Amino acid sequence: MLKFTPIILLILYLAAVWFFSLWRLKQELNQRSTPLSHPRLTPMLERLGRAMDLPAVRAHVYEVEPVNGLAAPDGRIFLTRGFIRKLDAGEVTPEELASVIAHELGHVAHGHARRRMIDFAGQNAIRMALAGILGRIIPGLGVWIAGLVATAVAARLSRDDEFEADRFASALMIRAGLGTDPQISLFRKLDRLTGKGMGQAPAWLLSHPPTARRIAAIEAHKARWHDG
């Protein structure tokens, strides 16, 4: 039994980290968000809801400036205040923000938000295990290599989730009569809107797939669905 004690302690530690991260995120969102009520977005929320045979989609505004969307582990959908400011400035359209909400709904439908929290714990477990093994084999470099491997694994899982959420969003946008053009046009603006270039890190370390690949996947799904 004693030989399993380190494993049991590691599992308990990772569970504690997971629950603490979940609690901290919920507190942050509760304190810094308000219900989304915008005259140009309300019709979009209603259309997305009707497309799923549900009432209007409920969303919230996360009061931070970076341009982003978020699906919380409890199923709530958020757009950042920065994204709303872009809408008011005419830099994005209501249909484009509808595609963001549809994407986040995809994360909720597939359980990605909760899975990412678990992946976070798993990433730490991989890092700690590899660091212990490689640290003996390659002193000084073992911890760095372990971190690189854990990050690459987590990034791969995250990219798979993004493609899956994109596919859900495309189907929902088509069913809502909005089509995939807003989804694609927003992707073409994202690097400028966020001030980030997708070439800043190797693709296998990026948590989101390269924009060009996401657009190509959406266009392929659209063509396949129309052919069908």
From TrEMBL:
Keywords: Hydrolase, Membrane, Metal-binding, Metalloprotease, Protease, Transmembrane, Transmembrane helix, Zinc. This is M48 family metallopeptidase. Binds 1 zinc ion per subunit. The chain crosses the membrane at residues 6-23, 137-157. It comes from Paracoccus fontiphilus. Belongs to the peptidase M48 family. The keyword Ligase does not apply. The keyword Protease applies. Pfam families: Peptidase_M48. Gene3D superfamilies: Metalloproteases ('zincins'), catalytic domain (3.30.2010.10). InterPro entries: Mito/Outer_Membr_Metalloprot (IPR051156), Peptidase_M48 (IPR001915). Residues 37-220 form the Peptidase M48 domain. Its cofactor is Zn(2+). It comes from the Bacteria.
